[in-house]
Amino acid sequence: MRRLLSAAAIFLLLGPLPGTEQRMRVMDRASQRIEARPLVYPAGQTGTLRFVRGWRLVSPNAMFGGFSALALTGPDRFQIAGDNGVLVRMTLTDEGQPRAAHIGTIASPTGGGRYKSQSDVESMLVDRQSGRTWLALEGLNQVWRLDPTLTHIESRRALPEPAWPSNSGPEAMARLADGRTLIFSEDAHSDPRGREALLYTGDPAAPGPAPLRFFYDAEGKGLVSDAAPLPDGRVLLVHRRLGLSPIFTTTLAIVDPADIAKDAVVRSVAIGQVPVPLADNYEGAAVMRRDGRTFVWLVADNNFNAWQRSLLVEFELVDLPGSKKAAR
Questions:
Q1: Residues 9-60: pLDDT tens digits?
Q2: 105-111 contacts, C-beta under 8 A, 24 or more apart
Q3: 46, 72, 81, 159 from 92: Cα distances, Å
Q4: 3-class SS at 37?
């Protein structure tokens, strides 16, 4: 993940936020305990992005945190990956209690230890039918496909040359209904047309046709931190912008895959921002349908800082704007 201002610099500038505690963490890497602390915030009644519920996730496990990717594998069943290689699976009960929780790490390509670059997961897809998982790793500029047990790398493939910078690479990935896969860079090459992105017609982790390159112009919303397909075929994009008050501004927008063509510039329509009291470093997103309504889950990366939080929040998406083509 690219940090426009390093977490260390922000911390030195601001110091601990009010109400936070500074303490040394015990290096526990074995605990499987997860606690979900409810967020006190009113349910949304107006606007397109309406808060439903949310929790701050904590665990004594020292690997727990740094969350950068999110997938739903069943009703209230979550799979969360971090940029430190952590892989968390859990179910939240109706009362918001974690159940069937497992905290582990992603598979290693060598079967042994991993460097940071071999653990920097920034986006994730899960195919519910096969149980397979796809991971986009920023440091390696690769996409991996894992078996249903998450213990074996079935296939891996490098992104095409020229490689995206290691701190600005594949940040967001979304599988379209027709099987194509979109991968957005966070800030690759800073092309004046926008940020580079790729469209794969086949499995992005397996040998196959070269992807189509296009550009995404965020029009000031910030850098893309994740993507998730919507029921109508369009794609929800999460943008992150850093500042001082609040430090993190998260803007959600919709992009239409119908606009994608070779070297084309595509743009999105903003639909809302995460409210300031819930602001944090959101890097993972997953969309689901429930009772005929559409919801998005967001997970935040705490960067292992005491003044940031590992938040898991749900919003309902209401009255989404129509496609850009229809509005022209």
A1: 444 333 444 344 444 445 677 899 999 999 999 999 999 999 999 999 999 9
A2: 105/63, 106/81, 106/135, 106/146, 106/150, 107/144, 107/146, 107/150, 107/151, 107/152, 107/153, 109/144, 109/153, 109/156
A3: 26, 11, 17, 35
A4: strand
ω into 16 cis (within 30 of 0): no
* Cα(213)–Cα(160) distance, integer angstroms: 10
Instruction: State how far Cα 217 lies from the chain centre.
Output: 19
CB atoms near residue 212 (< 10 Å):
16
Q: How far apart are CA 204 and CA 210, in angstroms?
A: 9
pLDDT for 175 equals 98
Determine if the peptide bond prior to 246 is cis (ω within 30°).
yes
Cα–Cα distances in angstroms (integers) from residue 170 to residues 14, 161, 250, in the given order? 30, 13, 19
pLDDT for position 28: 77
Q: Which of 18-27, 72-81, 153-162, 214-223 has the lowest mean pLDDT?
A: 18-27
pLDDT tens column, 172-198: 999 999 999 999 999 987 789 999 999
Walk across the sheet containing 311-317 and list its strands: 35-38, 49-58, 311-317, 293-300, 282-290
In sequence order, which residues have a C-beta less than 8 Å from that of residue 82 and are 6 or more positions away?
A: 63, 65, 66, 67, 68, 69, 88, 121, 301
Report how many helices (DSSP H) and strands (DSSP E) the chain contains, helices first.
2, 21
Which residue type occupies 137? L
Residue with tokens 């239409």: 256
Nearest to 130 by CA among 175, 90, 83, 85: 175
With 70 as the cut, is the pLDDT of residue 111 above it? no
Residue pair 81/69 in contact (Cβ under 8 Å)? The answer is yes
Between CA 1 and CA 203 the distance in angstroms is: 24
Q: How, if at all, do strands 212-217 and 265-273 pair?
A: parallel
For 131-243, strand residue ranges (E) read 133-137, 142-146, 153-158, 170-175, 181-185, 195-200, 212-217, 223-229, 235-242
